[in-house]
Amino acid sequence: MKNIKLVINNEYKKEKEKFFIKKELQCILNLYAKMVSNGTWKDYSFSSSVKEVSFDIYQRASDRPILRILKNLKPIYYNEKFLIKDKHGNVLKKSKNLNQLIDKTSWNNLKVV
């Protein structure tokens, strides 16, 4: 009885987020609906990788995405959890909170080149 060890397998604990949670997705889709009604945005898509999940925004369905709202799954710094990137991959804004990022961004004044 002295050689018995208790082995605890922690793999079945809470899995890390692999996509946008419901509140984040609702916030993004509310913004998308507002911009579609303005006539600025036309289409969207989702893409994912091991490091990030993104909501891609298009002006035309055949083009590359003009903007990407990213959720960084493995951020190096705490304020790089959510990012907005242009079609060239340049970071326009970053924040640790998606609601603040969307509310503080002036979407109509973003210049898409």
Could you give the distance between the termini? 71 Å
Q: Report the portion of residues in β strands.
A: 25-35%
What gross morphology would you assign? elongated
Structural class: alpha+beta
The main sheet orders its strands as 1-2-3-4-5
Reading the helices and strands in chain order gives HEEEEEH
Alpha carbon gyration radius: 19 Å
How many β strands by DSSP?
5
Please report the number of helical segments.
Answer: 2
Q: Which runs of at least 5 residues are low in confidence (pLDDT < 50)? A: none
Return the average pLDDT rounded to an integer: 83
The largest sheet, given as strand count, sense and whether it forms a barrel, is: 5 strands, antiparallel
**Percent of residues in helical segments?**
10-25%
What's this model, at a glance?
The chain is of the alpha+beta class and 113 residues long. Helix content is 21%, strand content 26%. The longest helix has 17 residues, at 22-38.
What would the keywords be for this entry?
113 residues; alpha+beta; five-stranded antiparallel β-sheet; 2 helices; 5 strands; 26% strand
